[in-house]
């Protein structure tokens, strides 16, 4: 007799095959069981599990692009433990296990179960010298259960269960391997050796099949990431550690190794790469550790159109490995420096959105939200500013009563209108700037400026006085300064919190005729741009001052400038031309670096009497305020992609 205390059952071995209790013999039984009744049904015992057996792959329920920092790879090394530096990874689609190569010595592969967030086993890699070798990349053969592991200048094949050597080690060409992938069906190993191309080697013998060289006109390049698309027989390689590079991804035919596609991008830091042909997905891991340059980028495999840029720290810093689980549409990111964790799981969409159709730059679209005529009280649009989060436009109105119109450019409607509190000003407005962090508007009018709540229009601070009648205004939120152009030769500088007029910067003595109208501050370069208009016989159109010392740094030579308004962002400066004549109206786009003309938008389609310009750099759009509402009051212009 034996008792199962957990499930409250009694098992009885019947020597004579009799039932217990006597008198109920119907069929002879060797073992009978008595089950406790009265306190609920007993539970069935759970089958014991092997801690090394993988669990069923988890079906994702998170929204696309959700990042989950896994704890299996510790973010810090415990005392006495061997440090882990995760690099290349590979997924077993049948089990969902992730095989993670470790750059730190000794040579190890960590097998992670993402569902339980644990390391189920660690394998010692049979490298040339396991004590001294660190790993670089890894590939998994689902048909054989073997791992191909890259290290130093070599690669080796090992058993994914035991770590036993299957084949190799074999040598690559010199240079030190960074990325690797395998054509298991075709018996080829591809390796990126920080050169301009990649090695192709026989998977069985290690013999060199071909050293593929990059095109001579491809610019600076060092191959790091390598990914093979077995469905379409394509080889993807990525570029990193190369100053002044102009390409980030190259795609080669697996049949003849000819170049079939490239991704043009400046300063690529694509340390790792993965491809999922089932969903047309290519992922690159960024080597950078800065906030807006880290993480990963998602591209369509067909055409290499950008789908999503996941640049925040939660998507990983120093991403030395990326791999995709085709069964669950999950991406695994190896953050080599283990920030925010060593392994990050990102949910991918089951199907990528259709790539954006490239938009031709300089296309003007007249918005109808601001009526071209009529309306009481009248609207004459002047200064504008963009809400970067929504793309909505705040439009200052020069006509009385003082109002700000919030325009949704997509729907082409005025969503709401803020009326500046009565008694604050009898003037119409001139210019406007938006503080997105605090959701307040800086508004210039008459000879004054005031800070308003962007939702309600309530006064937050002010009003405060400029030294004269203001035309253009902008804000340095970092230093807490307000700049105002008051039709003098220079500009005013005021404290953004107290309103104190700190100084009036005078123009240069040799600058000729000048009246400051437009004012734009570029926080990225810490430069202040001012523009000239209404100054007969002028010889300069734009002047650029340093934000730290307000010293004049650059000047643009142009005769009889009519630059009523100005905006700067993304390396472009746009000035609005005050003229109403056909070939002198519209806007002028210049380079922020040297003030040379990039594009002259002179036709009426770009607006007459342009009293306001603003740039939405996130959406590559320019907004033009045509003060006299011709051809419309507000015009949207497409800009070249950032």
Would you tell me which CATH topology of the largest domain applies?
Answer: Methylamine Dehydrogenase, Chain H
CATH class of the largest domain: Mainly Beta
Mean of all residue-level pLDDT scores: 90
**Count of discrete structural domains:** 3
Question: What is the share of helical residues?
Answer: under 10%
* Count of extended strands: 51
Q: How would you sum up the major sheet?
A: 4 strands, antiparallel
Oligomer: single chain
Could you tell me how far the N terminus lies from the C terminus, measured between alpha carbons in angstroms?
A: 79 Å
Strand content: over 45%
In the CATH hierarchy, the architecture of the largest domain is 7 Propeller
The coarse overall form would be elongated
Number of helices: 0
Low-confidence stretches: none
Strand order of the largest sheet: 4-27-26-25
Superfamily at the CATH H level of the largest domain? YVTN repeat-like/Quinoprotein amine dehydrogenase
Task: Evaluate the radius of gyration.
Answer: 34 Å
| Structure class | mainly beta
Key traits:
642 residues, mainly beta, Methylamine Dehydrogenase, Chain H, 4-stranded antiparallel sheet
Give me the secondary-structure topology.
Blueprint: E1 2-4, E2 9-13, E3 31-35, E4 67-70, E5 86-91, E6 98-102, E7 108-113, E8 118-124, E9 135-141, E10 146-151, E11 154-159, E12 165-171, E13 179-183, E14 188-192, E15 198-202, E16 208-212, E17 223-229, E18 234-239, E19 247-253, E20 259-264, E21 270-276, E22 281-286, E23 296-300, E24 306-310, E25 319-325, E26 330-335, E27 343-347, E28 364-367, E29 381-386, E30 393-397, E31 403-408, E32 413-419, E33 429-435, E34 440-445, E35 448-453, E36 459-465, E37 472-476, E38 481-485, E39 491-495, E40 501-505, E41 516-522, E42 527-532, E43 540-546, E44 552-557, E45 563-569, E46 572-577, E47 587-591, E48 597-601, E49 610-616, E50 621-626, E51 634-638
Antiparallel strand pairs: 1-2, 2-3, 4-27, 5-6, 6-7, 7-8, 9-10, 10-11, 11-12, 13-14, 14-15, 15-16, 17-18, 18-19, 19-20, 21-22, 22-23, 23-24, 25-26, 26-27, 28-51, 29-30, 30-31, 31-32, 33-34, 34-35, 35-36, 37-38, 38-39, 39-40, 41-42, 42-43, 43-44, 45-46, 46-47, 47-48, 49-50, 50-51
């Amino acid at each position: 007799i034996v008792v199962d205390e957990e499930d409250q059952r009694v098992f009885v071995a019947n020597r004579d095959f009799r039932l217990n209790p006597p008198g109920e013999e119907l069929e002879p039984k060797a073992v009978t069981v008595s089950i406790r009744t009265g306190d609920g049904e007993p539970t069935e015992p759970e089958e014991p599990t092997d801690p090394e057996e993988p669990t069923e792959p988890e079906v994702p329920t998170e929204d696309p692009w959700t990042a989950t920092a896994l704890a299996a790879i510790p973010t810090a090394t415990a005392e006495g433990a061997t440090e882990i530096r995760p690099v290349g990874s590979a997924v077993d689609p049948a089990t969902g296990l992730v095989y993670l190569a470790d750059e730190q010595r000794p040579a190890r592969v960590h097998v992670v179960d993402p569902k339980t967030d644990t390391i189920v086993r660690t394998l010692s890699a049979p490298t040339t010298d396991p004590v001294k070798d660190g790993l670089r990349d890894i590939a998994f053969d689902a048909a054989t259960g073997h791992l191909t592991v890259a290290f130093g200048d070599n690669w080796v094949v090992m058993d994914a269960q035991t770590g036993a050597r299957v084949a190799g080690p074999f040598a690559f060409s010199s240079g030190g391997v960074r990325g690797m992938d395998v054509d298991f069906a075709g018996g080829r190993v591809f390796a990126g050796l920080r050169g301009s191309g990649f090695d192709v080697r026989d998977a069985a013998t290690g013999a060199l099949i071909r050293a593929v060289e990059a095109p001579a006109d491809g610019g600076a390049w060092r191959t790091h990431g390598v990914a093979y698309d077995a469905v379409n027989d394509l080889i993807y390689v990525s570029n990193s550690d190369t100053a002044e590079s102009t390409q980030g991804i190259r795609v080669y035919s697996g049949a003849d190794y000819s170049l079939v596609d490239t991704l043009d991008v400046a300063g690529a830091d694509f340390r790792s790469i993965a491809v999922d042909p089932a969903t047309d997905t290519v992922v690159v891991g960024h080597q950078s550790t800065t906030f807006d340059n880290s993480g990963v980028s998602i591209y369509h495999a067909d055409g290499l159109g950008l789908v999503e840029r996941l640049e925040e720290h939660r998507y990983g810093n120093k991403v030395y490995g990326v791999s995709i689980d085709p069964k669950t549409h999950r991406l695994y990111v190896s953050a080599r420096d283990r920030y925010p964790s060593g392994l990050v799981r990102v949910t991918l969409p089951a199907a990528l959105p259709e790539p954006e159709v490239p938009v031709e730059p300089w296309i003007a679209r007249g918005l109808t939200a601001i009526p071209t005529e009529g309306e009481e009280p009248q609207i004459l649009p002047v200064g504008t500013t963009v809400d970067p989060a929504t793309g909505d436009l705040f439009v200052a109105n020069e006509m009385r009563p003082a109002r700000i119109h919030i325009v949704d450019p997509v729907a082409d409607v005025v969503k709401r209108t803020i009326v500046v509190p009565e008694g604050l000003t009898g003037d119409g407005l001139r210019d406007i700037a938006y503080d997105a962090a605090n959701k307040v508007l800086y508004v210039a009018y008459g000879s004054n400026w005031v800070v308003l709540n962007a939702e309600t229009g309530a006064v937050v601070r002010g009003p405060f006085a400029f030294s004269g009648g203001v035309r253009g205004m902008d804000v340095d939120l970092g230093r807490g300064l307000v700049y105002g152009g008051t039709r003098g030769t220079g500009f005013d500088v005021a404290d953004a919190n107290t309103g104190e007029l700190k100084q009036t910067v005078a123009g240069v003595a040799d600058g000729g005729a000048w009246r400051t109208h437009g004012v734009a501050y570029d926080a990225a370069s810490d430069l202040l741009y001012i523009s000239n208009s209404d100054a007969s016989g002028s010889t300069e159109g734009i002047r650029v001052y340093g934000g730290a010392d307000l010293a004049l740094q650059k000047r643009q030579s142009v005769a009889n400038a009519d630059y009523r308004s100005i905006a700067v962002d993304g390396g472009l400066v746009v000035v609005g031309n005050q003229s109403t004549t056909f070939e002198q109206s519209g806007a002028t786009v210049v380079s922020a670096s040297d003030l040379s003309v990039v594009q002259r938008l002179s036709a009426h389609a770009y607006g007459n009497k342009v009293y306001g310009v603003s740039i939405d750099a996130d959406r590559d759009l320019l907004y033009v305020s045509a003060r006299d509402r011709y051809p419309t009051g507000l015009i949207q212009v497409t800009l070249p992609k950032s």
